[in-house]
Structure formats: C-alpha cells, structure tokens
C-alpha cells in the first residue's frame, strides 16, 4: 500500500474522513481491511491519547456492547483477539484510502457543467468535449451560468469567448471581471452549422430561419443565397426546438446535428458556415484556479488597466516581447466603473478620454520565471492587474 506523508494532525483528519466517506470507495476486501488496520495502528503511534469515532457498522461487528467513542487501538486489539469474531466479520471494516483513491476520475463523470442554452447548443457540445461523461446543466443566460458555479449548484461553466469569424463575445469578457471565478481551461470547437427543417421540407421552401446571431454571422453567404428572413433566438438549440414545436413548414433553423437529433428535425444542408475554419473558443470557469505546470503548453489570461501617458500600451506589450512571450489575444473593453477620464486644460477646455480595460492571453505558464517577471514588470505601470487563469492550451 502506498504510504502518504501525513503529519500527526493531518493523519487524524484522514482517519475520521476515512470513516465518514468510506462508502464512496466500494466494499472492503480482506486485504484492504488488513491495510486499514495497519494505518490505524500508525495513527495511534502519532496520537497516543486520541479517540476515534467508529461508524456504527464497524462497531456492530463486535458482539459485546461498545461505547460510541472508543480508543481505536482497543477496538482493533479486541476485534483481533476475540475468538467470536471471524475473518469474514472483519471484512466489513471500512476500506482505507490508498494514493490512487485520492485522484478523482479524469473523465469528468461526476462533474456538473453549466452552459448557456438548451440541450444541443454548441456550448453543450463544448462542455462534453471538455468532460465527455459530465452532467450538462442548461442555463438561461451567461450570468446564470456564472452564478451556478459560485453557488456550488454546478462545478464548472463552459462559455463562449470568441469565434474565428465573428470575433469576441464581449458580454463574457465583462462578466469575467464582475465575478470572481477562475479560468480553468479552454475548449476550441469546430462549429459545423446545419440548416434544419421539419421532416419532408426542402430548403427552397424556407422563408424564415431562426438562430443565434453569432451563427447567422458565420453563415452570411448561405443565408443570402437562400434569401430567407433571419429571426434571432437566444441559442441555436432553442431555435431548433421552436421550429420543431411550431410546425411551420416554411421555417427552419441553423443549429447543430445534435439539436436535429434531439428535436426530431431533418438536416437540409450540412456545414453551411462560410469559412471551413469556423472555430469557437470557450472558457471553462471554476471556483478554484488550476495549479499550473510546465509539463504541457499553458496559456495565461490577464486583465489590467494602465496609467495615462504616451506609449503606455506600447510599454505594457513590451513586457511580453522582451521575454519572447507570444500573445494570442488582446481585447479592450470600456471600464464601466470609470468610462471617461476628464483632462482639465484651461486653454483648450475639458478633454474627455475613454478609459479601458485590457484583456490579454499569452502563451506561458505562471510557473515559468519569465511569466512571473513579466507580471511584476507590468504591475509597475498598471493601476490594476488580475490573473484570470492559467490553463492548458486546447487543440481543435
Ligand atoms: O447558440 C449556441 O448554440 C451557442 O452555443 C452559442 C454560440 C455563440 O454564442 O457563439 C456558440 C458557438 C457558435 O459560435 C454559435 C453560437
């Protein structure tokens, strides 16, 4: 059995949590029960005067009356020595944690992930790319997804941040700053848009097409050729659902193949996006930051404001150039708290400048000294600086 390097206090905490959560790890084998006893004995050596609360299940294996709080060494000794207690009875002792138990499965099977839209939305597909076995939780809007993570209703949120054709999704940049979540990862999704209609309908029959405005932007040319009226809906899957429930033969939707399957629609045309490289980048948001490594390619996202003065943005960008750090994204947004800066000049009157927040993504891990030095350098002339997250780079 792998031995954990735990101090006495940690060891005690481990023993009690082991008793409480043992059912999470399945039934105990005899071998496991034996190593459990060894662990207990080790714990007693550290904390000779401590008492451990045993679960009723473990205590009932000893026939004589046992108090709820007992000395762990005593009960182990009595259990081992008592001729009335068979090996079979001992097998119901809780199974100890081993080092491998401490890793949660990496397939995301226990993870609940919030996204904006209905089932079949591209955001749900992105969530499933990140956590293939997760439970996806649809949300009305982006803000609801942020709050669902903050309130522990879900574990993560997956939200779109930019598209290779349509550009940035500004609302999510603003929400990133208003909430205290961390960027724990990114998902790059190839968005294959489909034209959907009711069963038996031909695409030439369509007069109206429902979809998300971003999806419309991504298939401008196809829609112009069809000459249809565009009706904006909150998300592509909701558009598909409305077409299915509306039952109007002249109304179609731009949505995913998954949405077609869920809502029972026909795919009238596949891959209708104007550009084959139609990629939407999503952020994975979590309550806790990722502990960055240097084992793979990492990206760091930051937001900052600058002091007023000539060349300040040039200087800000130089902190990365000087250290050969590649920037992958730069975005500026108005500062809602302080959108205007008034410069008083008695000769020329009062000039008003817009004040901005700058969002930058750069290709380096915060574990790298060059990234840490760049941040320290940037802090010298920024009024505000926040690291939004450091996370592994995703590939399409
Ligand atoms: O409406 C959806 O299906 C979404 O997931 C939203 C969204 C977006 O907002 O960009 C996501 C991916 C596509 O680019 C189109 C729409």
From TrEMBL:
Gene Ontology terms: biological process:
L-phenylalanine biosynthetic process
NCBIfam families recorded: PRK11898.1
Question: What's one GO-annotated cellular component?
Answer: chloroplast stroma
Q: What does this protein do?
A: Converts the prephenate produced from the shikimate-chorismate pathway into phenylalanine.
**What InterPro entries does its record include?**
ACT-like_dom_sf, ACT_dom, Preph_deHydtase, Preph_deHydtase_CS
Coiled-coil intervals: none
The protein's Enzyme Commission number:
4.2.1.91
Domain ACT: where?
301-392
What is any Pfam family matched here? PDT
Pathway(s) served: Amino-acid biosynthesis; L-phenylalanine biosynthesis; L-phenylalanine from L-arogenate: step 1/1
Q: Which GO terms describe its molecular function?
A: arogenate dehydratase activity; prephenate dehydratase activity
Q: Which residues form the Prephenate dehydratase domain?
A: 112-287
Q: What is this protein called?
A: Arogenate dehydratase
Gene3D superfamilies noted in UniProt? 3.30.70.260, Periplasmic binding protein-like II
Q: What keywords were assigned to this record? A: Amino-acid biosynthesis, Aromatic amino acid biosynthesis, Chloroplast, Lyase, Phenylalanine biosynthesis, Plastid, Transit peptide
Q: Does the keyword S-adenosyl-L-methionine apply?
A: no
- Which PANTHER family does this entry report, sorted A to Z? AROGENATE DEHYDRATASE_PREPHENATE DEHYDRATASE 1, CHLOROPLASTIC, PREPHENATE DEHYDRATASE P PROTEIN
Keyword Chloroplast in the entry? The reply is yes
Where in or outside the cell is it found? Plastid, Chloroplast stroma
Catalyzed reactions: L-arogenate + H(+) = L-phenylalanine + CO2 + H2O; prephenate + H(+) = 3-phenylpyruvate + CO2 + H2O
